[in-house]
Amino acid sequence: MTIKPSIVAxxxxxxxxxxxxxxxxxxxxxGSGNHIATNSHVLPEATLPDGPEIAVLLSKRNGxxxxxxxxxxxxxxxxxxxxxRIDGHPLPSPLS
Length: 96
Fold this sequence. Notes:
Elements: E1 7-13, E2 21-30, E3 35-38, E4 53-59, E5 65-76, E6 81-86
């Protein structure tokens, strides 16, 4: 099975946590390729200075995975939707 490069895993990352990465859902790139649509319930309620960061795991065609930090752009719990922004090289976007 091939996972499209615009599909990502979304969760939290914390250095002092074991496991460090906890993935809670998925998302997909849209627009410029630096925005990720996901569900709001997969994001932490509040990000504290020493708390978990939002993490997005990218899957590349060669089987290599890359972790990127993400920031919340907007969150709509009533409709269970959220938009994240990732820095760096944009992902291919199926909805551009």
